[in-house]
Specification:
6 helices; three-stranded antiparallel β-sheet; 241 residues; Enolase-like, domain 1; binds flavin-adenine dinucleotide; alpha+beta
């Protein structure tokens, strides 16, 4: 797994220069050979040529529809939800925003979508998932942190001999003991993080995690048996600023 890598060039190494395997060159100068390349390019909001400017709906600088915290546009009677507003572009988030809009405008139950603590996953191999703040975000916005990590080869792979490993990280705000982020790379990461997202949304502390009994033998039990914080010191918010 290579983070912060940009692909500069892909060369087909198959017979006659067509098909795989492929040699991938990064802008940092690295080269590696792979069977397949899946290249994510991102998406742009499809907001042009539908007359939004004529009805007073403003766009933001990336061309998404600008909305307030109620999903209301700059036009008095027009709301927008989902990817076209470029908040967090995920299906359950679009559903939450739509549900809040319907409750507020038609259900006589005003509520705003809450974009904090939205879990997400990348369904690659190994799978990645997280909820809450990254370590960098926590360092920027909070005071002292305690970081707990675990890296191991799942027990089932000791039988099969497979070398794939799992990595987990919990980020805890030292002053409140609140778990502000959970991260995982490994089998079933999305399934595990979905469960932890409930605890983190509910404001669970590290003491709650420590008091929770694990299921043995699972990868998930590692999240409730991390006892020793990583040794390195973390800058306070003032230091980060
Ligand atoms: C390849 C891919 C994989 C993804 N995987 C995941 C995933 O695993 N999990 C996850 O949570 N999210 C995933 N997403 C994101 C998810 O699909 C979106 O967040 C979600 O579909 C947003 O819902 P939406 O209703 O806002 O937009 P959309 O589902 O995009 O719906 C917008 C609709 O508006 C229509 N439309 C566009 N322009 C016009 C127009 N001018 N007039 C009339 N109709 C128009 C479109 O045809 C479309 O039907 C993925 C997205 C992509 C592209």
């Amino acid at each position: 797994m290579r983070t912060e890598s940009q692909i500069a060039r892909i060369a087909a190494k198959g017979a006659g220069g067509a098909g795989g395997p492929y040699e991938v060159h990064t802008t940092a100068g690295g080269t590696f050979e792979v069977d397949l390349v899946m290249y994510a390019t991102g998406r742009a909001p499809n907001t042009k040529s539908i007359g939004l400017e004529k009805v007073g709906v403003q766009l933001n600088k990336v061309g998404a529809i600008a909305v307030d915290e109620w999903s209301k546009t700059t036009a008095e009677n027009i709301w927008a939800v989902g990817d076209v507003t470029d908040r967090i572009n995920l299906t359950p988030v679009a559903i939450m925003e739509g549900h809040c809009f319907a409750d507020t405008v038609f259900g006589n139950k005003p509520r705003k979508p809450d974009h904090r603590g939205v879990p997400s996953a990348v369904f690659c191999q190994p799978e990645m998932a997280n909820v809450g703040l990254t370590e960098e975000e926590a360092k920027r916005t909070l005071g002292e942190l305690r970081i707990f990590t675990a890296a191991f080869r799942p027990m089932k792979y000791t039988v099969s001999g497979r070398q794939q490993r799992t990595f987990m990280k919990l980020i805890v705000e030292a002053a409140t003991d609140r778990v502000v982020g959970a991260h995982m790379v490994g089998d079933d990461a999305a399934e595990l993080i979905q469960g932890l997202a409930v605890a983190i949304k509910a404001g669970a502390t590290k003491a709650h995690f420590d008091a929770t009994v694990g299921i043995h033998p699972t990868a998930g039990e590692e999240f409730v048996t991390m006892r020793t914080a990583r040794a390195d010191t973390t800058p306070t918010r003032a230091a980060a600023e």
